[in-house]
Amino acid sequence: MRNCVSLALLCVLAAAPVLAEDAAPPYDAAVRSLSAEERAAMTGVSWHEGCPVPLDDLRVVELPHHTPDGGSARGLLVVHHDAADAMVTAFGALWQQGFVVTRMRPVHEFDGSDDKSMAADNTSAFNCRPKSGGKSWSEHAYGRAVDVNPMRNPFVKGERVTPPQGKAWLDRDSAKAGVLVSGSDAVQAFRAVGFRWGGHWRTAKDYQHFSRSGL
Question: Which residues of 173-203 are buried (b: 16+ CB within 10 A; e: fewer)?
Fold first, then answer.
């Protein structure tokens, strides 16, 4: 009888599904309108009167991302409503690839400062500001651009590196977590949804930057 019971138990165990110990949770993204609290927090910080898009045109994309410590977190991106689905799709591909995103928070949490956001290696999208060194609106002011891991993927023009902490990441090695390189699956994920990469610019390299217009 004991042998029969043991045999039956072995059969049950063999038939049971094998679960990975560190299986990542499923990709669960959502798109929603700005809350009243978010509107208030953004006004006068990352958005103000005179911006090229009204708050009603913006959406919050909530999505999971892998973190450098091997875990995961749920991030928030503020984008134009016509870019929301593209962000869900592109970051879904990055999730499946295991691509690391250090953090993902709206820029108003950094006082609307692009410099503070980049220094924190923060992935962000909407910020009503002009182009760096220019007067015309950045694509971020329309909510149709996203900067991914800006410290790991800095802006480089000659000797200028922005953010300065990005100098440690000038060796564009695809084996480094969260680094974007030409032809990589991560870059292709954004290209597939119609966003062009600043790493392909000629006179400068904006490795963090993806935009619909290519600017």
Answer: eeeeebbbeeebebbebbeebebbbbbebee
Domains of the chain, residue spans? 24-126+140-211
Cis peptide before 150 (omega within 30 of 0): no
Q: Is the pLDDT of residue 113 over 80?
A: yes
| Helix residue spans in the chain (DSSP H) | 2-15, 36-42, 84-97, 114-119, 185-191
Going by C-alpha positions, the residue among 116, 75, 110 that lies closest to residue 92 is: 75
Check if the beta carbon of residue 179 is closer than 8 Å to that of residue 97. no
In whole angstroms, give the CA distance from residue 65 to residue 49: 32
Which residues are CB-neighbours of 131 under 8 A, at least 6 positions away?
137, 138, 215
Distance between CA atoms of residues 142 and 79, nearest Å: 8
pLDDT grade for 12, boundaries at 50, 70 and 90: very low
Distance CA 209, CA 203 (A): 15
Quick check: pTM over 0.70?
yes
Q: Which of 25-29, 31-35, 42-46, 133-137 has the lowest mean pLDDT?
A: 133-137
